[in-house]
């Protein structure tokens, strides 16, 4: 079933490889259920069904971006708690000729980083979570309202091995190994002794969202991650000890690749200044998507 779902998604993505409004709309109608629960980042948020997705997401994008198309560099699938998921990450690209989501057009080529998760039932998507890196687009448009970020922000090249499009079958032993390593790493985040450290290659690349930035090397990632965790008292993910708040909707591995997503997936009390925002001492929860590539034991 997972292999069949990946081929279904491959056909869907193929229709977005060259600008064609009719093909785009037909692809959406063929892929999404008419009653699908589709969740998109703020300010779009929750929409319902294929026609709603066309009207509220796809058509506004096609109007705003001339020559709109997409390229994905990771596609994997798997089963989580009895549900079949397919997920991808990559970019939309186009010339921004009209305003979009309150952002003024710049009449130049722009990239929109995208990550998607789709739950498949009977060859139809019935539930989706779609992430656009809107802060990255705001930076490209020079309208980012907060202080400069400490890391790199810009176009991401994708996996170093260029093998992230996993449309075929994967060795289940490799998939299980990947998932085990990722889950152990996640369970050790926000620990006083940085117990997550050995799970990363010394020259790893962490491609964070634009508000956080991207970093090369585990030491540089540490210089971001540890202060980030300290901004939130009780910083928690699903696999943290004593977690009773956070729940991932998907956490799967496919060969050497793994992912997890939560629509809310990080929680903590905001106790220190973060992204120019003074501490509120209120609980903050975040929508999260991550993809990892394992090489050997890291």
Gist of the model:
With 298 residues, the chain is of the alpha+beta class. The protein contains six helices and twelve strands. 26% of the residues lie in helices and 35% in strands.
Topology overview:
Blueprint (H helix, E strand, L loop, with lengths): L1 H13 L6 H11 E9 L4 E4 H16 E16 L2 E14 L12 E13 L2 E9 L1 H7 L31 H16 L17 E2 L8 E2 L1 H13 L1 E5 L13 E5 L2 E14 L12 E11 L5
Helix pairs in contact: 1-2, 2-3
Protein name: SnoaL-like domain-containing protein
Organism: marine metagenome
Tell me the structural class. alpha+beta
End-to-end Cα distance, whole Å, is 29 Å
User: And the CATH topology of the largest domain?
Assistant: Nuclear Transport Factor 2, Chain: A
Percentage of residues assigned to helices: 25-40%
- Unreliable spans are none
Largest sheet: 6 strands, mixed
Radius of gyration: 19 Å
Helix and strand pattern: HHEEHEEEEHHEEHEEEE
The overall number of domains is: 2
Q: What is the name of the CATH architecture of the largest domain?
A: Roll
What is the overall silhouette?
Answer: globular
CATH class membership of the largest domain: Alpha Beta
Mean pLDDT over the residues: 94
Number of strands: 12
Portion in strands: 25-35%
Strand order of the largest sheet: 2-1-6-5-4-3
* Discrete helix count: 6
């Amino acid at each position: 079933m997972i292999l069949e779902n990946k081929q279904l998604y491959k056909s869907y993505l193929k229709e977005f490889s060259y600008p064609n409004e009719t093909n785009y709309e037909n692809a959406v109608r063929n892929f999404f259920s008419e009653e699908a629960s589709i969740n998109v980042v703020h300010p779009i948020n929750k929409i319902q069904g294929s026609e709603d997705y066309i009207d509220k997401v796809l058509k506004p994008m096609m109007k705003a971006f001339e020559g709109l198309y997409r390229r994905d560099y990771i596609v994997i699938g798997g089963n989580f708690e009895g549900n079949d998921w397919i997920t991808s990450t990559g970019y939309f690209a186009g010339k921004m000729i009209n305003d979009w989501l309150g952002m003024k057009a710049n009449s130049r080529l722009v990239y929109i980083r995208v990550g998607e998760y789709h739950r498949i039932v009977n060859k139809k998507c019935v539930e989706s979570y779609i992430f656009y890196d809107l802060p990255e687009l705001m930076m490209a448009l020079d309208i980012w309202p907060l202080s400069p970020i400490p890391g790199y922000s810009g176009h991401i090249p994708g996996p170093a091995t260029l093998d992230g499009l996993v449309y075929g079958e994967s060795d289940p032993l490799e998939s299980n190994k990947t998932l085990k390593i990722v889950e152990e790493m996640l369970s050790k985040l926000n620990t006083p002794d940085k117990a997550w450290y050995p799970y990363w290659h010394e020259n790893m690349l962490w491609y964070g969202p634009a508000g956080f930035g991207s970093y090369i090397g585990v030491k540089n990632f540490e210089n971001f991650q540890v202060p980030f965790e300290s901004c939130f008292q009780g910083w928690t993910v699903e696999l943290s000890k004593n977690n009773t708040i956070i729940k991932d909707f998907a956490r799967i591995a496919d060969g050497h690749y793994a992912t997890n997503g939560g629509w809310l997936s990080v929680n903590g009390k905001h106790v220190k200044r973060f992204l120019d925002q003074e501490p509120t001492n209120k609980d903050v929860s975040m929508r999260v998507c991550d993809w990892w590539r394992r090489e050997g034991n890291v």
